[in-house]
Write a structure and sequence with these properties.
The chain has about 425 residues and is of the alpha/beta class. It folds into 2 domains: about 240 residues, Glycogen Phosphorylase B (Rossmann fold, 3-Layer(aba) Sandwich); about 170 residues, Rossmann fold. It has 17 helices and 14 strands. The strands form 3 sheets. The protein has a 6-stranded parallel sheet with strand order 2-1-3-4-7-8, sandwiched between helices. The chain has a 6-stranded parallel sheet with strand order 11-10-9-12-13-14, sandwiched between helices. Helix 4 runs parallel beside helix 5 and helix 10 packs across helix 15. The two termini are about 15 Å apart.
Length: about 425
């Protein structure tokens, strides 16, 4: 098969990108041809297909809205709005790609804002099957994550998307909210997502959101995230530190981990690895400094080659999200490395962690996080035992082969039906 995989970024960044490159490698192992379609950034990996890539909003080095919003001229602001609603450039370019290379299937990983669902229309115009993996709630929530004021909010589901105006959910800006809400209603009016042949939901939590929104059950496939356990040996010994890694944004609840660490008076080092898209990392560093908290180190973004050894040497990891995380890769990667996880009992995290492989705590509960940390620090053997169970769970539930076999069967069925 020739498969186009669509994602905003074509370089190592966050969970969707790790998924993008991981599933690409596995598809190519079975001699499928994978063609990337993304936004044009300088950080992108080199590919002969980059001539089809979509132009960036600002420039090829700026990723986040917060970094370019004040630099945009009027024409660029219009382009931001139009791309969020319907990118005719993306539609044209992916159409050219499909026509030039005889594509069998389009697999959507990340299209919100930068690319838009216009690519669905381009594919279906050419009678190409479309499969969509959904990593957040952007189809149901103007803010994407069902989060408001550090608490879960699902008012958009109940009262409609215009509820976002009341709370100025995006960047505290009515104009940004207006563009987002308009795009959501236009997508609903166009019924563009009705044209998707199959939705991949990494969590049951996400699948329930689709069912609640009225999507047909026969189009919904729950396939959890994966990790290639063959390339990642577990390590049950440790170097005596606890670890948070991943995106350091407000919704990830890292401030609660820091406050729990502070309240517990722990002396075991806490390492925090990752970058921020909303400036939360800087706010957290200021909090640590102002309060004189010792033994917390911010490492910044770490690529996979640096990150894996950090995970393998940790005692355990902490995933303190306050948002309905879909199926965070950080949990899967931790367990694959033989590390127990302290995680928030919310969204897909609740499905990933068992009492044998980690500790679930109420989201945002600082005392519960503190108690869970104290529990593991006081029992080194328990940490090792939980790590072994975590590894077994990953091998059984989150292996690459399990994921791939389920996914490729969907691809093959859709392509076969399309050729009849």
């Amino acid at each position: 098969m020739k498969i186009v995989i669509v994602n905003r970024r074509y370089f190592e960044s966050t969970g969707p990108e790790r998924y993008f490159f991981g599933i690409t490698e596995r598809l190519e192992k079975d001699a499928h041809q994978v063609i990337p379609f993304a936004v044009r950034f300088k950080m992108n990996k080199k590919t002969p297909y980059e001539r089809y890539f979509v132009s960036p909003i600002a420039d090829e080095e700026t990723l986040y809205y917060r970094d370019y919003k004040d630099k945009l001229n009027f024409i660029q602001k219009l382009r931001v709005a139009s791309n969020a609603i319907y990118s005719f450039e993306a539609k044209k370019k992916i159409g050219q790609l499909i026509d030039d290379h005889g594509v069998d299937l389009v697999f959507l990983v990340g299209i919100a804002n930068s690319i838009s669902p216009s690519v669905i229309h381009a594919a279906k115009k050419r009678n190409i099957p479309v499969v969509m993996r959904v990593s957040d709630f952007f189809m149901f929530c103007a803010e994407n994550t069902f989060l408001r004021d550090r608490k879960v909010c699902r008012e958009c589901e109940i009262y409609g998307y215009t509820r976002a105006f009341k709370y100025k959910c995006l960047h505290n800006s009515l104009s940004v909210v207006g563009v987002r809400v308009l795009s959501m209603y236009i997508h609903r009016w166009l019924k563009v997502y009705d044209k998707v042949d199959a939705f991949i939901t990494p969590s049951l939590c996400m699948r329930e959101a689709f069912l609640k929104a009225g999507f047909p059950e026969e189009k919904l496939f729950h396939i959890p995230n994966f990790i290639n356990v063959d390339n990642l040996a577990p390590k049950y010994e440790n170097a005596g530190y606890m670890l948070y890694f991943g995106r350091i944004d407000m919704d990830k609840g890292v401030i609660n981990l820091i406050k729990a660490y502070e309240k517990g008076g722990f002396h075991v080092p806490l390492l925090i690895a990752g970058a921020s898209s909303d400036g939360e990392d800087k706010r957290l560093m200021e909090y640590v400094m102002e309060n004189g908290i010792k033994n917390i180190t911010f490492l910044g973004f770490k690529g996979r080659d640096e990150l894996v050894p950090l995970i393998r040497d940790a005692m355990f990891t902490v995933v303190p999200s306050i948002v309905l995380d879909n199926n965070p890769q950080s949990v899967v990667e931790s367990m694959a490395c033989g590390k127990p996880v302290i995680g928030s009992d919310i969204g897909g995290i609740s499905e990933q962690i068992t009492s044998e492989s980690g500790v679930l705590v109420p989201p945002g509960d600082i005392d519960a996080i503190r108690e869970a940390i104290a529990l593991l620090l006081s029992n080194p053997q328990k940490v090792i035992d939980m790590g072994r169970q975590a590894r077994k769970r990953v091998e059984k539930e989150y292996s690459l082969e399990n994921h791939y076999n389920k996914l490729i069967s969907i691809f093959e069925r859709l392509v076969a039906n399309n050729r009849i």
